[in-house]
Amino acid sequence: MSDALSPMARPRLYEQVLERLRAYAADAGLRAGDRLPAERDLAQRLGVSRASVKQAIVVLEVQGLVETRHGGGTYLVRDALDAEPVERLVERRRRLPDVLDAREALETKLAELAAMRRTDEDLAALESALEFMASEIRDGGAGVEGDRRFHAAVTGAAHSALLAEFMDAIADQITESRNESLRQPGRPPRSLDQHIRIADAIRDRNPKTAAEAMRDHLRTVAEVRLLSWDPED
Fold first, then answer.
1. What is the distance between the alpha carbons of residues 69 and 67, in angstroms, rounded to a whole number?
2. How many CB atoms sit inside 10 A of residue 66's CB?
3. CA distance 159 to 147
4. What's residue 8's pLDDT?
5. Using H for helix, E for strand and C for coil, what is the string for 105-141?
């Protein structure tokens, strides 16, 4: 039986607030560092509850578009509030734990093997990736490309064709988890430091320490605002 006449889904109120905030930021010419009106003021002007405004702000935080400072208001992190659709965010939240589990299982072993099998050329690739990520961070970036290069270099140093195929098969999902992690406040330099620890263990041919360092790093990658967000709360 056709469900064409089933009840239509109604957009969540906070999704409507999100769209209004996006339009307001654009119309007002807000840029990174500018402050949004207080939640109470936004609620009054939009004719909604503060809870709806707060839900919208949380979604913007999850996406790394704003930063809420305790007792100090909410500030834009980027030059626009171009939030992705909430349903896409919900889907990413659903699959992220599985991606993180897979990364820990695969990349911990890759780091261990890299410490056992690495060549001088592999060490040069690791060092190049670290230098690139450091330069990205110095220039105000998140270090995304340097991060990608580093994990690719670890995979290469393991010299395991099958594990490399597994990593390639989930490359898109890994990219999602990388972007999610590196958008967290203060995360890029912390991630770089952890990469250095992994590289040092690989250079020293210490498989146990390399695996432990990679595991610690990936558990930090899993500490993201998205996973503490409940879209129905």
1. 6
2. 25
3. 19
4. 44
5. HHHHHHHHHHHHHCCHHHHHHHHHHHHHHHHHHHCCC
